Amino acid sequence: MFTAQGPTFRELAVQALSSVERGYDLLAPKFDHTPFRTPDLVLDSVTRALRPLGPFSSGLDLCCGTGAGMGVLRELCRDRITGVDLSAGMLAVARERSERDAPNARWVRGDARALPFSPVFDLVVSFGAFGHFLPREQPGLFAQVHSVLRPGGRFAFPLPAPARPGSRGYWTLLGFDSAMRVRNALWRPPFVMYYRAVRPSAVTEALRRTGFSVELYALPELGRLPDGSPRCRMVVATR
User: Which residue positions does the secretion signal occupy (predicted)?
Assistant: First the structure.
């Protein structure tokens, strides 16, 4: 799962016993050499699906990490793009890389549950971040996104189909979530990373209750399940 340039087992153990913020600060220099970094195939698929919905002016990458999702905004937004993340370490890596790839990018350290912006964005994207928020936090998180979008602005993110019960993916996620719950019961501070809690039906319902209209777009490049349904869809929530 990890390249030779990725973190060692000892480094991962130290990171897992830290808070979410501190853990990602420690992981930042090697983050892009782990499976946690959103694959380019996903980023490219989302870019293609969003392009017909533009043009967009300003964009925000929510929980941007080292900035992989900023490439989507560079392709789609005509003006300034912004990345926001809680981890100073992840932002430092992103900022260093952007000096070459995205000199117009702005990087802001902030909590997604209390975004430090007025409604100035036409597009907000996010990749792989929702597992760091408890289900009860999702409505507040989505309300924050709603508050920073201009009227008609879009909030877009990929949402994989739930793993089929009994499948390898199902047992992998169940084992990971169970291990995290045991860790958090025995150790402080907690490290929230519960990806089984990101249920498509609950996410879309929370978005609608926040005031978004919601559409789902298949991402065919990411494959289909045995029943023919997409393995991954893009959620587009419009203010």
Answer: none
Q: Is 9 helix (H, G, I), strand (E, B) or coil?
A: helix
Q: Which of 210, 207, 233 is nearest to 220 (CA)?
A: 233
Spans in the chain with pLDDT lower than 50: 1
- Quick count: other Cβ atoms within 10 Å of Cβ 171? 12
Selection from 229, 234, 225, 224 nearest residue 44 by Cα:
234
Taking CA atoms, 61 is separated from 51, 100, 189, in Å, by 16, 18, 26
Per-residue pLDDT, 21: 80
Looking at residue 3, what is its pLDDT? 62
87 residue type, one letter:
S
76 burial level (CB within 10 Å; 0-12, 13-18, 19+)? buried
Write the DSSP symbol of residue 230: B
Nearest to 184 by CA among 129, 139, 138, 134: 134
Give residue 222's pLDDT.
Answer: 95
Q: What phi-psi label fits residue 194: left (phi over 0), alpha (psi between -120 and 50 degrees) or beta?
A: beta
* Dihedral sign of CA atoms 205, 207, 212, 214 in order: negative
Sign of CA dihedral 163, 165, 171, 173: positive
Give the DSSP H/E element, type plus range, for residue 73.
helix 70-76
Is residue 57 classed as helix, strand or coil in its secondary structure? coil
Domains in the chain with CATH codes: 1-37 (no CATH), 39-162+199-238 (3.40.50.150)
